[in-house]
TrEMBL record:
Protein name stated in the entry: Antibiotic biosynthesis monooxygenase
Organism: Nonomuraea rhodomycinica
UniProt biased composition (Low complexity): 74-84
Keyword line: Monooxygenase, Oxidoreductase
Pfam families named in the record: ABM
Lineage: Bacteria, Bacillati, Actinomycetota, Actinomycetes, Streptosporangiales
Biased composition (Gly residues): 85-97
Positions of region (Disordered): 74-119
PANTHER family per the UniProt record, alphabetical: SIGNAL TRANSDUCTION PROTEIN TRAP
The keyword Transferase is annotated on this UniProt entry: no
Record's keyword annotation contains tRNA processing: no
InterPro entries assigned to the protein according to its UniProt record, in alphabetical order: ABM_dom, Dimeric_a/b-barrel, Heme-degrading_MO
Domain named ABM: residues: 3-94
């Protein structure tokens, strides 16, 4: 059964553009991780300041292995540096300006049912 892991980022309005720019320049290593199935960055259309970093994996173990592995570390080196520069305030997706997000939390789901377009 596939699992979905969503990193929920609270992004102040003035940091939205910067967050999206940083993802546009992301490492792109997750795509070659074992058991990786899908990634999407979801921008809130209305009513919330929370972006969703949606990932889907073949299994919980595949996600855990990615999160413990080099690809996660490489993909997050910049964020760690920015969080360090900003004195550890908040967590975020950042390059040089400090974290773009003021908060993050992970939501976990199991895919019980799924469907795609009829071919
Ligand atoms: C400690 C919390 C986290 C921080 C500070 C953080 C920060 C970042 C940063 C900075 C990037 C790359 C964009 C850039 O270089 O600016 C990134 C990419 C990414 N993050 Fe996070 N992240 C965190 C946790 C997570 C978690 C838990 C997930 C999964 C649910 C996740 C999913 C991703 C994915 C899929 C990418 C793209 C990686 C790639 O392109 O190889 N992040 N994150």
């Amino acid at each position: 059964m596939s699992v979905v892991k969503i990193n929920v980022l609270t992004v102040p309005a003035e940091m939205r553009e910067e967050l999206e720019r940083r993802f546009a320049n992301r490492a792109g290593m997750v795509e070659s991780s074992d058991g990786f199935e899908w990634f999407e960055l979801l921008r809130p259309a209305e009513g919330t300041d929370r972006y969703l970093v949606y990932t889907r994996w073949r299994s919980e173990d595949d996600f855990q292995n990615w999160q413990k592995g080099m690809a996660f570390q490489r993909g997050h080196a910049q964020a760690a540096a920015d969080a360090g520069r900003a004195g550890g305030q908040g967590q975020g997706h950042g390059h040089g300006q400090g974290p773009a997000a003021t908060d993050s939390e992970v939501w976990s789901f199991e895919v019980v049912q799924s469907a795609g377009p009829k071919s």
